[in-house]
Design a protein that fits this description.
Layout lengths: L8 H14 L7 H8 L3 H13 L3 E4 L5 E4 L8 H9 L20 H19 L7
Helix pairs in contact: 1-3, 1-4, 2-3, 4-5
Length: 132
């Protein structure tokens, strides 16, 4: 069944991992996150390394190693994580060359552009702390 909004597995892993990590005061490793989320520890490790690279998480090696948030959960928006994994959301309307309907009735300019802007606004207004 088609979906209007779809989160990739990677975005889902990043967001859920951030919430789980924020709930504890110690590094959480990929095996623990895999047990909680059901995703592969290898996929989790790959996604979280991306978030480390972008300064959202920090990682520690060794037997007591794992991942921790680099900032306060209230300072990390859901969009920060989404953007790190998926890239910036493009909010664009219909191009001039393919525009055939009247502007007040254009589904791309009116509906899709508005829904994309609302989606981004929602992700930016909600932080990891909101989901703890």
């Amino acid at each position: 069944m088609p979906r209007i909004v779809n989160f990739s597995d990677a975005a889902t892993i990043g967001i859920h991992s951030a919430i789980l990590i924020a709930k504890v005061d110690r590094p959480v490793n990929a095996i623990e996150l895999s047990e909680e989320t059901g995703f592969s520890k290898h996929h989790i490790g790959k996604v979280l390394q991306r978030l480390v690279k972008d300064g959202i998480f920090t990682s520690f090696r060794g037997p007591s190693g794992g991942f921790m948030l680099k900032k306060n959960p209230a300072d990390i928006t859901i969009y920060d994580i989404y953007r790190s994994i998926e890239g910036e959301v493009e909010i664009e309307g219909c191009s001039e060359e393919h525009h055939i309907c009247p502007m007040e009735k254009c589904i791309r300019d009116n509906l899709i552009k508005k829904m994309s802007a609302d989606f981004v606004r929602y992700l930016k207004e909600n932080t990891i702390a909101d989901y703890m």
